Known about the structure:
The chain is an alpha/beta fold and 450 residues long. Helices cover 34% and strands 24% of the residues. It has a domain at 165-406: Dihydrodipicolinate Reductase, domain 2 (2-Layer Sandwich), CATH 3.30.360.10. Strands 7, 10, 11, 12, 13, 14, 15, 16, 17 and 18 form a 10-stranded mixed β-sheet that branches. The longest helix has 19 residues, at 430-448.
Amino acid sequence: MLWLSILCMLAANSCKMNKTTEQGIRIMTLDPGHFHAALVQKKMYGQVSPEVYVFAPEGDDVNLHLKRIEGFNNRAEDPTSWKEKVYTGEDFFQKMIQEKPGNVVMISGNNQKKTEYILASVQNSLHVLADKPMVITPDEFPMLVESFQEAEQNGVLLYDVMTERYEITTLLQKELSLIPEVFGSLEKGSPDNPAITKESVHHFFKYVSGNPLIRPPWFFDTEQQGEGIVDVSTHLVDLVQWECFPGEIIDYENEVEILEASRWPTIFDAEMFASVTGLDAFPEYLEKDIRDGQLHVYCNGAFTYSIRGVHAKVSVIWNYQAPEGTGDTHYSIMRGSMANLVIRQGQEENFIPTLYIESVSGAEISDAAESAVNQNLQVKYAGISLVPVADGKWKVDIPDKYRIGHEAHFGQVTEKFLEYLDEGKLPDWEVPNMIAKYYTTTAALTKALE
Length: 450
């Protein structure tokens, strides 16, 4: 089996990897077309050189990236001190591979060539920290598998940026699911009533670091960005695996089955498009997606699947703009034999992610369960408490100090990646499960297109 052969390769080659941190980490940012590339540099890291080498084509994408870095360097509170070394020739990628002034490639931008960039980078013995998604088409999935194999052979790490693992309500949902006195055991569910459901609602018009986000026009081209079912859903599939089967290896060839999948567009008129991109007209490459003068972007998707016999559903929705006072939202439920663990972020929660424990029987939480919660959570998260809100329902009260915000999670992911670089390897389950994750999203796209 493919996953088993990769695992054996991990064990055989882990000793070959040099500890990069002994030589110092030097980042090369490749074609930073997405603002996530800049968020990795929102803070400094002791083992990372302040000199960052940027290789990109000339244009708005790289200019906006450099402007964001400049903003971090010049902010009043805790300014950064990055020094960007920029090359913008047409041969930017070949130049990076030939000169290799750094040893870690940060990739966050146009996804059309991302899988090719990843493969070439690891083939040239470069570590890669890649924003999701690593692959956007089923045809390129084998290339991603090859990339992980090449990374192992060359003693480098390939890792994707999974920020949602660091969101406090998700962390606590996972923690509570591991307490049998509270959760019981994970249900198997059914296609009509999955054991775990995750829904993510995003918005094209939004603010980042206090400023309106200008999105590149290619972001609206699914051939360059990827459809929603292979883009944002990457996070959701990752959380399903990470929460339901922590530390376990998923054999996607035998343990994942896509049951149902669908996709649908968000529709833009010219004025809406201009407000997000700053362009007065649709680019020619979007003509294929224009119907009656309106742009149809297939950024929405949903699918139901089984993983090790557990039924799961993920869905991604993109709206134009959030109502005032709101933003991107997340809904999640894990159904246990004793209680459901539910994250809501609606009006009742003031659009703040809030975690609830909801007894399946409606019974009061037992003293043993409350004791288990306190013993397990208070050690890791001081100040966490349970607040009864209705019969058989409790809210997990979370101190504000744990709500650090989405942008700060990029620094946490980077710090974890640096730890892995120092150790010279990823956890045994990470590579097989990254492969399983991208198999799931690309197979779901195949199903939706049937």
